[in-house]
Amino acid sequence: MHTVASTGEPLRVAVVGTGHVGLVTAGTMAAIGHHVVGVDSDRSKIERLEGGECPFFEPGLHELLFGRQGPGRLEFATGTTAAVDGADVVFICVGTPARATGEANLVAVEQAAREAAAGLSGRAVIVEKSTVPAGTAHRLRQTLARVWRGSIDHLAVASNPEFLREGRAVEDSLFPDRILVGAEEDWAFETMRRLYQPITEAGARLIETDITTAELAKHACNAYLALKISYANALARLCERAGADVEAVADVMGSDARIGRQFLNAGLGYGGYCFPKDIQAFRRLASELGYDFGLLDEVVRINEDAVESVIDKVREALWNLEDKRTALFGLSFKPGTDDVRFSPSLKLAARLIEEGAACTGYDPEAADNAAREVPALEICPTPYEAARGAHCVVISTEWEEFAQLDLAKLQEVMAYPIIADGRNLFDYPAMRAHGFAYYPTGRAPLT
Ligand code: UDX
Known about the structure:
Elements: E1 12-16, H1 20-31, E2 35-39, H2 43-50, H3 61-66, E3 74-77, H4 80-83, E4 89-92, H5 107-119, E5 124-128, H6 136-147, E6 155-159, H7 169-174, E7 178-182, H8 186-201, E8 205-209, H9 211-242, H10 246-254, H11 275-288, H12 294-318, E9 325-329, H13 344-354, E10 358-362, H14 367-373, E11 378-379, H15 383-387, E12 392-395, H16 407-413, E13 418-421, H17 428-433, E14 437-439
Parallel strand pairs: 1-2, 1-4, 2-3, 4-5, 5-6, 7-8, 9-10, 9-12, 10-11, 12-13, 13-14
The protein binds uridine-5'-diphosphate-xylopyranose.
Residues 162-166, 222, 225, 229, 263-265, 267, 269-272, 274-275, 333-334 line the site of uridine-5'-diphosphate-xylopyranose.
C-alpha cells in the first residue's frame, strides 16, 4: 500500500459508526495525521477493535487501522457525547437502511447528530458521510438548534459523501479521484480543506458545492452506475435473442470516451449494501419532490430479471430442476469482499432451491456469511467439492481464482459437464477444449 504524507496541522476528528465507511474513514484520517476517535454503540465491536481485530474483511484495512501509519492517533470509544469533546470534525457514518417503503431510515443519523451536538461546545463541523437523501442537512441543522436552544453559531453541517468501493475502499479513501464537500459556512469549507489537505496535495480534486447539491450528487452517481449495469443487462437479453455478443457490444460502446467501458459488464446484476438501497431511496426522494423518476424503476426491474435469466439458462440446460444438483461459484455480492448483503448470487441460490434444485456453494471469503443468510445452501470448502456430482456449475461472482481452475478436474467431478456463466468469466476455446456445454450471458451458448 502506498502512503499519503501527513502535512499541515492535525485536527481532532470523531467518527460515529464503525462499519465499512466509518472504519475506513477513521483509519484514513489517522493515517494522514489527525487525532481520531472511532465511536460505536456496540460495545463488543469496540472491544474487538481495541484488541486490534478488524470486524470484517476489507483488503488493507487492518494495516491502515493497526499498522505503522497512524500510531497512537486512533482510539475507540462507545459514548458519542463524551467522545466528541474537543472535536473539530465529527463524521456521521452510521447505517441508513431502507424502510419497507424504500425511503432511507435516518433514525441513527438523527441520533448520532443529537448525541454529538450535546458534547460539542467548541467550533465543529458535523459531516454527513453516510449516504442520505437531499434535504437531510436541513433536518440536521434543525436538530442541532433544538439541542442548543437556537444558538448554534459554533456548529456547521457539511455533506462529504463517500465513494468507496468495497474491496478497494482503503485505496479509494487514501487516493480518491475527487473529494466532494457541500457546506454553507466559509469556516466549514476551510476546516474541510485543512482536513483533506494531505490528500488534495497528493492530487485529489476537491469539489465544493452547496450542501443539497452534494447530497443529491452522491445518489446521482450510484443510480447512474446502476443504470449502466442495467443497460448492459438489457442489451444482454437483446443479444441473446438476436444472436449478437454483448461483450463485443460493450467493447464498442466503451471505446467511445463519452460512454466508457466501466460498469457495462452484463451478468447477474448489481447487489451490495449501496446500489439497491440508494436507488430505492433516490426514487422515493424524487416522488416526494413531485418528480416521477420512472427510469429508476426500470433499472431495478432489469436487475431483478438478470437473476431470472440465469435460472432460465440452467433450466434450458437441465430441463427439470427438481432432481438436479447445482453448484454456485462465488457467493459475495462481488469479488474481493466477504459481504453478502443483497448478493445476486444468494438471490440465485434461494431461487434455485425454491425451484427444487439442490444447491452447493463455494466462496473464498464469504462462505460463513452466506451460510447464515441461506441455510439450505450446502457450503463446500473447495470449488471441486462444490462441483462434485453437480449437473451444472454457475459462475455467480467472478473471483479471479475461478479463472485459474483446473477445468479437466472440474469436468471430471461433475455429473454433467455444464457451466452457466453468470459473469462471462470463461471463453469459448477453453470451454470447447474441455468438453463443456457452456451458457454465457448475452452471448451464444455452446451446446
Ligand atoms: C458502490 C460504488 O461503486 C461506490 O462508489 C459507492 O460509494 C458504494 O457503492 P460497491 O457497492 O462496493 O460500491 O460495489 P461496486 O464495485 O460499485 O459494484 C456494485 C455491484 O455492481 C456489484 O454487485 C458488482 O458485481 C456489480 N457490477 C459492477 C456489475 O454487475 N457490472 C459491472 O459492470 C460493474
